[in-house]
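To whoever is covering the structure queue this week,

Two jobs came back overnight. Logging them here so there's a record in the thread.

Job A:
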Amino acid sequence: AFSAPIPSYNVPAPSFGGGFGASSNPYSSPGAPSYSSYGGYGGQARRGLHPMVVIAAVIHFLFGAGFVLEAISLMFTMLLFLVGGASVLGSLPEDAKGGSAISGIVGLGMLFILPFLLVSIGFAILEIWSGIALLKKRFWARIVSIILSIIYILPFLFFCIMGLRVLDPCIIFASLIGIAVNAVVLTAMFIPDCTSDFA
């Protein structure tokens, strides 16, 4: 029987450079950089930090330094309560009726300031630690930065509204600065070119 040879259709498929985003992709424009060059899918992340991330870390350091100064001032206030109350009690005669009242006021003052002191120390540690973690590209630092920025913006927004009601330019200006600074941190945490540093 006569059998004709079966033609072979093994035509090589066009190569796209080994994957999506490669430079030989025929569907990409010649001068357009691929997404992989920005640390996206199939590419390497940026070696250095984005400038906005560095600015956000510096803001964390400044806020942390502010909380440290606040904690120091609260500590000095507590010492003044102690030293002042002890000196007043020491100058009173033994049978003075106001001695117990003054000692009670000093004790209540200590209890009132102590929580604020602990909160200031905690926020100072958190701010400085978050700034260091941002420089190390830690993902949890990005989440903490977003939460802290939102927490800070709310009271600044409240003070700005109150300043507008009483038409106090100092309160309005300070509130706007606080809102702008925290908005910079939020912007840095949501820019895609910055978030790729924490992937």
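Job B:
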Amino acid sequence: QRAGFIDMRIPGAAGAAVSTAEDLLRWDRALAKNVVISAESRRRMLTPEKGNYGYGTMLGEMGAKKTDGHNGGIDGFVSLFQRFTSDGIAVVALANYEDLPVDLVMPGLTKLALGQPPDVAQVRPEIQLDDSV
């Protein structure tokens, strides 16, 4: 179904960015090599300032591995970018369907990126309803 119309001039940078997974990988590599910002700025970016939020990135952990990244969404699109800070691994989920729960897709993608088998979806039993329902 079509997403609701939104004039992308209104949200500014929140809706004006167009990217691909390959673009985001290039961006990640440029950040890691201090091409875009200095090593000091990158260190500050990855330092918690407000709870688990650094400068423009959400900081967390998966198991014993430190992660950083960000999600996004606007009418018609959702995204999630997660970097394993010290492993040089970045995982990206992009969708042009705004209701796709990328936070539920990401764990399987992450396990694949780490060389682990993803969890197998469980089959849910059919629920029998009375015809009156």
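Note for Job B: The beta strands are 58-62, 65-74, 77-84, 89-95.

Please reply-all if you pick these up so we don't duplicate work.
Q.
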